[in-house]
Amino acid sequence: MTQTESWSLFRDNWFMTLTMVVGSFIAGASSEGGGAIAYPAMTLLFNIEPDVARNFSFAIQTFGMTFAAIWIFLSKIKIEMNYLILAGIGGFIGIILGSYTIVPLIKPDYAKMMFVSFWLSFGIALWVVNFISKRNSVNKLPVLNTSQKVELLAVGIIGGVFSSVLGNGIDICTFSYVVLKYGLSEKVATPTSVILMASNAFIGFILHLFIIDTMQTEAINYLLVCIPVVIFGAPLGAFVITLIGRKTISTILISIIVIQFITALFIIRPNSELMLFSSIIFSVGLLIFFVLTKRNGAYKKS
Questions:
Q1: How many contiguous H segments (helices) and E segments (strands) does the chain have?
Q2: 197-225 pLDDT, tens digit each
Q3: How far is it, in rounded angstroms, from Cα 214 to Cα 42?
Q4: Which residue from 42, 68, 132, 148 could staple onto 144, CB 3.0 to 4.6 Å apart?
């Protein structure tokens, strides 16, 4: 920053630095990446184009979540390799597929409603996982047959497609899937999903920076003023979660998700066509989080 005389970027973009104080904390304290806070704040509150918000999410998570992933490996925290590999391959396919086929078709308002609608379905899943379901958690997935492997790969592809449009999505798709369907412990699923999102974000970042060549200068400027925050904010979130408990963090996240959806309705004022699109995305989320996971009865209502 000194060599390029870029410190003035903080004067114009300080609001993003402040946003990522919260975003990086949430990323470290839960299964969601920093883009989960950055994207709605940028598109709904600051009226930044969704394409810029998506590319910034890729960029900032490449740095923040990669640092977190390195820390996870060095600390020898338990992860689930089958989950990571299968969902990672699916995410790679999904983010490439979505970037070339779906992203060019999504209009700005549709991208915004896609985000809040998908996250609303995840909020319901998060509520069930933490406050309704009664599960016997395990630290490792069972030996998967071919159809189960294909199913996890498909969930990864869907998550990668969502990431291609929104800047994140594969982490929450796959995290909810393995926790609800197979009862994988959050203590194992969360660090695995962090590594998974880091790899997916890196792919998206490289894709838009060097291959598609659509990484905006605006997104890079936001990245530069946020890197110093995220490399400390994520570890801080991981530390605080050990003090206040995951249910408290979940309550905060669910509240944010509901507020995001209500705010989007108020700001965008979607017409009937957009509301139909929103309903479809919400239904797809519920399909991932409940219909697929309910098949083997991995959880039951208490």
A1: 12, 2
A2: 999 999 999 999 999 999 999 999 999 99
A3: 18
A4: 148
Q: Identify the CA nearest to 35 among candidates 293, 226, 208, 177.
A: 226
Give the Å distances, CA to CA, from 113 to 44, 98, 109, 190.
10, 17, 6, 26
Which DSSP letter does residue 301 get?
E
Residues 6+ apart with CB under 8 A from 254: 123, 126, 127
Residue 134: per-residue pLDDT: 65
Give the three-class secondary structure for 138.
Answer: strand
The confidence band for 129, taking pLDDT boundaries of 50, 70 and 90, is confident
Q: Which residues contact 199 (CB under 8 A, 6 or more apart)?
A: 69, 88, 91, 92
Alpha-carbon span 245 to 24, nearest angstrom: 17
240 vs 133: CA distance, rounded Å? 25
In this structure, the dihedral spanned by the alpha carbons of residues 36, 151, 295 and 78, taken in order and rounded to 10 degrees, is: -60
Element (H, E) at 278: helix 272-286
Judged on CB neighbours under 10 Å (0-12, 13-18, 19+), 82 is middle
The residue written with tokens 């609001």 in the block is 15
Residue range 140-193, pLDDT digits in tens:
999 999 999 999 999 999 999 999 999 998 988 898 889 888 888 878 888 899
Domain boundaries, the chain: 9-301
CA distance 142 to 70: 26
Q: What is the pLDDT of residue 279?
A: 95
Residue with tokens 């660090």: 191
Res 298: pLDDT: 44
**Residue burial 1-10, b: 16+ Cβ < 10 Å; e: rest:** eeeeeeeebe
